[in-house]
Task: structure prediction
Amino acid sequence: FLKCVDVALLGAPIAHLRSIRKIWVDEIIDESRWRTYISGLNTEWNGFTIFSTVMLAVDISFLAVPGVQAASGDPQSAATISIYASVISSVCALIISVVLAGQIRSHDVDSVGGGVHYMARMTMNAHGDEALAVMFSLPYSLLLWA
Result:
C-alpha cells in the first residue's frame, strides 16, 4: 500500500512514517518527542495554508492573462490545463491542511493522554500508522504537485 502511494506523493509518507514510528512505540508516546512533533506539524500545516493560498492566487492570475485561455469552442492549451490542475491541487492542499490542523486542535493532542487517545484511534484501521503517514503528508505532496 505505502510503496505505491509514496511514489505518487513524492516520498513524503515514508518521512512521516519514520517520525510516527519514533514517537508511537508499542502504543506509548514519549512526551518530549510528541510535543515537538505536534508543534512541528501545526507549524508545517499553517505554512502550507499560506503557500496554498499564494499558489491559488497566482494560478488565477495566470488564467486572467489575455490569450491564456482558448476562445469558446477551441481546445484548451496544455498551459491552461496545467493551471487548472494546479488550482485543484492548491485548493485540496488548502482544505486538507486546514482540516488536519483543526482536527489536531479539537482532540487535545498537546497533552500526552490526548495524544495517546488520538494515535490509538487513528492507527486502529487496517493500514494503521501507514494511513496516518499518508494523511499527514497530503498537504505537502499536493502543494508540490501544484
Q: What stands out?
A: The first strand starts at residue 24 and ends at 25. The CA atoms of residues 22 and 101 lie 21 Å apart. The chain has a mean pLDDT of 89.
